[in-house]
Write a structure and sequence with these properties.
With 99 residues, the protein is an all-alpha fold. It contains six helices and no strands. Helix 1 crosses helix 3, helix 4 crosses helix 6 and helix 5 crosses helix 6.
Length: 99
Amino acid sequence: MLPLSKIRADLKEIRYYYERKEVFDTAIGGGCFNDVLNKVRRYSHAVQSAPPRLYDLYILLYVKCLTQEAAGEELGYESEHIRRLNKQLLTFLQSKIVE
């Protein structure tokens, strides 16, 4: 089982990838790949079986790169509820991601 610190670090890299996706896609078109793509695939596969609320949160926080505050506004949740859901998401991913 991966430690939560590793999952958090991976999610930061995944978020960075989506923030800069256009640059990565251009590099891929030129034959230049980065290991972050493997993480993106692994986490995308894992989150497919997540409960809908956790899946939605993953998309908002790590694919759309919203802050927890902005995600809470979009979903109509208080900040504390978003933090609890994010913790559930991390635990869910920890149970699904195998390194």
